[in-house]
From TrEMBL:
Boundaries of every EF-hand domain copy: 365-400
The name this protein goes by in its record: External alternative NAD(P)H-ubiquinone oxidoreductase B1, mitochondrial
Any one annotated GO CC term: mitochondrial inner membrane
Location within or outside the cell: Mitochondrion inner membrane; Peroxisome
Membrane topology according to the record: Peripheral membrane protein
Catalytic class of the enzyme: oxidoreductase
Broad class of the protein's primary localization: mitochondrion
Organism from which the protein derives: Lithospermum erythrorhizon
Reaction(s) catalysed (UniProt annotation): a quinone + NADH + H(+) = a quinol + NAD(+); a ubiquinone + NADH + H(+) = a ubiquinol + NAD(+)
InterPro entries: EF-hand-dom_pair, EF_Hand_1_Ca_BS, EF_hand_dom, FAD/NAD-bd_sf, FAD/NAD-binding_dom, NDH-2, NDH2-like_C
Cofactor: FAD
Amino acid sequence: ENSSFSKLLVVLTLSGSGLVAYSEAQSSDIPISTEASESKKKKRVVVLGTGWAATSFLKNLKDPSYDVRVISPRNYFAFTPLLPSVTCGTVDARSVVEPVRNIIRKKRANMHFLEAECFKIDAENKKVYCRSNLDNSLNGEEEFIVDYDYLVISVGARVNTFNIPGVSENCHFLKEVEDAQKIRRTVIDCFERASLPNLSDEERKRILHFVIVGGGPTGVEFAAQLHDFVNEDVVRLYPTVKDLVKITLLEATDHILSMFDKRITAFAEEKFQRDGIQLKTGSMVVGVSNKELSTKQVKSGEKAVIPYGMVVWSTGIGTRPVIMDFMKQIGQASRRVLATDEWLRVEGSDNIYALGDCATINQRKIMEDVTAIFHKADKDNSGTLTVKEFQDVANDICERYPQYELYLKNYKMHSLVDLLKESKGNAVKDSVEVNIEEFKSALSQVDSQMKLLPATAQVASQQGVYLAKCFNRMEECEKNPEGPLRIRGEGRHRFRPFRYKHLGQFAPLGGEQTAAQLPGDWISIGHSTQWLWYSVYASKQVSWRTRVYVVSDWARRFIFGRDSSRI
Ligand code: FAD
C-alpha cells in the first residue's frame, strides 16, 4: 500500500471546469492553476458519502466561502425507506434516486463531486486516500489523494453478517438500490424456475420458500411487500404454483418490531399470522448453505434445517473497514462505533466530523461532564446541594445536555419547584437537600433508556442540517459564541450542541395498512395511517423529480398492478 502511495502518481488540483490531474508529480512540483490557487484560499471541506447525512449537509450548506469536495463510490442519493418497495416493483429503482450532481449544481457554493471510495483517512496530515471505482478512470491508476481543512465523514454502515458461515455467499441483503433490484429479479426467477417441468413438488416448494432473517422494520416491511406482491400480482400469473408459496420471518428475540410500542408489535404479529406469513421468533440462524438454513432455538437449543429458495438477511449494521482503520489511528480501537461529542466532532481528532450511521455520540463522556458540573457546584464536598444550587446545576445541565431536560423538569426540578412554592420562605428553601449520588444514578437510568441514537435516516439528515448550519455560521460564532459554558476550559462553546427531534416512525405492514409511533407515544394503525405514510414519504423526497416519479409509480401500481417481468 505504502509503495503505491510513495509513487504519488496522481495529484489532483481543481480548475473551475473540473479536475486537472498531474501524473508522476511530487507535491512540491505541482503546477497550480490560478483558479486553483484562488480556491486554495478557501477552506476545503471534504465530504465522504452521498447518503442521508451527506446530502442534507450539502443541501443546507449555504456559505459560498468553502471549497467542497464530495467523494463517494455512488454518484446518487438513494431514498432508502422506499427500497423495500423497489424489491417488488411497487416503485421503480430510478424513482428513489437523485443524481448528486443535480443536488450540488443548484448550490451557489464551490462544490465538486468525485466518484471514488475513500479507503484511508490520514488525520495527522489531513488527507484522504481514494480509489476510483470507474475502470481505467485515471490511465490505469485509480488511486489519488485529497487534502482537507475540514473532513465530514458520512459513509454510513455496512451489513452485519455476525460472521455466520455462508451468509455473505448465499443471502441477499437490502442496503443499496442494486440489492433491491437483485432481490426483485430473484423473486421472479424463483417463480419462473418453479414453473419449469420435471421438478418434484418438494423442489418446487423449496424454490418458493422465501425466508427473511431479522424482524426489524426493514425485514418486516420486506415480508409485507413480498406477501402483497405474491398475493396481488404473482398468483394471477403463475396459477400452477401459487399454492406452494411460503414466506417465513425469523427473529432471534421474542418479538418482531421490538423497538416499537407493544401494541404495534402485537398488531403486526397477529396480522402476519392472518396473512399466512410464518413467524419464527427466538430462532437464531447459525449457518447458511446454498439451499438450506440451519437454525437454533435460543431458549431450548433445538436445531432445525430450513430449505429455501431465497433468503434476505436484514439483521442490523456494522462498521465499514475504512472507519475501523481510522478508529485505530485515533485511539478508538476498543469501540464498536466511531465516537463523537455532541457537536459531532470525532473524539481524538481535529476538524473531523462524523454523522449518520457511521458514528455515535459518546454518552459515557456526557455522564462524566454531568458529574463534573455537580462536583463544581458542591463546594463543601458534602455530596448534597441546596435547592438553589441544584436549580443552577439543573439549568446548566439542561442548557448543555438538552436530552436531560425532560427528566429534570418533569421529575426532580418540578417537584422541587412545587415544594418551594408550598414552603414558607427562604429558610426552608435552603434547607432542602438534593443527594448527588441518588441524582447521578437516576441520570444514568435516563441514559440507558435513551440508549444510543438510532441508526435512522431521520437522525442522519438532522445531523446533516445541524452541521451545515454550524459551518454557515462558523465565522459569526467564532466572534460571538452561542454555545453553553465550557466545563473544561474558559468561555463558551462556539455552537449549541446537536439535539435530535424524534418525529415518529412508521412500520408498513402490507395490505394498505401501516403502523405509526408518533411523538408523545401516539399510536396509529390501519388504512388511514397508510395514507399518512404516502403523504410523508412523498413530501420527504429530495427533489420534485423523484416526488413526481414516486407518486406516479404508486398510481401506476393501483391501476395496472406491479410489473413482474425480469429485467
Ligand atoms: P447512507 O445513507 O448509507 O450513505 C452512506 C454513503 O457513503 C453512501 O453514499 C455510500 O456510497 C458512501 N460510502 C460508503 N463507503 C464509502 C467510502 N469508503 N468512501 C466514500 N463514501 C462511501 N431510516 C429511517 O429513518 N426510516 C426508514 O423508513 C428507513 N428505512 C430503511 C430501509 C432500508 C432498506 C434501509 C437499508 C435503511 C433504512 N433506514 C431508514 C435507515 C437509513 O437508511 C440509514 O439510517 C441512513 O441511510 C443513514 O444515513 P448515512 O448518510 O449515515 O448513510
